[in-house]
Amino acid sequence: MAWRAQDSTDSIWFSATGDDLAWGEPWNLPYVGTSDRPALCALADAGAETLYLAWKGQHHDQSIYWSISADGHKWEDQQILGGAETSRGPNLIVFRGVLQAFWRGSEHLITSNQNLYSAVHNETGWSAPMMLAGMASVESPALAVLGDTLYLAHRGTKAMLDDDKWIRLWSTTNGVSWTSRANPPDAFSDLAPALAAHDGRLHLAWKSASGPEIWYSSFDGDQSWEPPSRAAAFETACGPALCSFRPAIGTNQLNLSWRGSTL
Fold first, then answer.
1. CA 93/CA 102 separation, integer angstroms
2. Contacts for 246 with CB less than 8 Å, ≥ 6 apart
């Protein structure tokens, strides 16, 4: 797990677990800072796994930075994802064995670029950013892979007189052409949603648009969404996170994490 510090340092912190019961003592990544949540992703190659970290710069710095590690403790020097700017934390996903980054555009004094973008990483580095046609959001997109399909969920855009909090779903089987899918019913959020594949279904979690409650639903990958349900009495001031995790052989569970509510 990676998160942004709650103090003025804006540093990135980590903790890890092998059984989902005992989390290790947190450690931080020195000499870097971010104003939003970072993204983690593991890529398997030639029998070894490499951990990738991506984050938005600190304060008004809207560059996207990234680094790699073999163990989550020792990280290589940060690098910039060329040509990319964002006002929110980026997201990472591995699809068909290829690492991809996704983000929303930059935010400046008189302009707000809420288009969504992606880039692909290969042996020569990151590709040029590609705008995702028809997709725009004031917050970061959420990604998950179910079967041979990559899914993307995002809330709508925000303007002075129009705050579109409806969550939308898209999918692609080739990473290039995207299709609008059945949107989750009554799913509205003022922040970025969370997405994960688990037990043959797509799972979505989001903070309520009108309060601190966390809601969730699941999708069969075709057209059918489960009616939204509240996640117990959990409350948050930020967008939640979802992850499918196997703490032991023969087990598979869906994990939800969130920051507490300040309301």
1. 8
2. 252, 253
Per-position DSSP letters for 3-49, written without gaps between them: EE-SSTT--EEE---SSSS-PPPPEEETT---SS--EEEEEEETTEE
d(CA 86, CA 116): 9
Global confidence as pTM: 0.96
The two beta strands, 98-104 and 115-122, are: antiparallel
- Extract long-range pairs of 186-189: CB within 8 Å, 24+ residues apart: 186/227, 186/228, 187/215, 187/217, 187/228, 188/155, 189/155, 189/165, 189/239
Query: How far are the Cα atoms of 43, 201, 243, 258 from residue 20, in angstroms, in the given order?
Result: 21, 21, 11, 15
Q: Which amino acid is at 71?
A: D
Tell me which DSSP letter residue 195 carries: E
SS3 call for 193: coil
Contact call for residues 54 and 98 (beta carbons, < 8 A): no
User: In a structure prediction context, what are the per-residue pLDDT tens digits for the chain, which is 263 residues long?
Assistant: 999 998 889 999 999 998 888 999 999 999 999 999 999 999 998 778 999 999 999 999 999 999 999 999 999 999 999 999 999 999 999 999 999 999 999 998 888 999 999 999 998 999 999 999 999 999 999 999 999 999 999 999 999 889 999 999 999 999 999 999 999 999 999 999 999 999 999 999 999 999 999 999 999 988 899 999 999 999 999 999 999 998 777 788 999 999 999 75
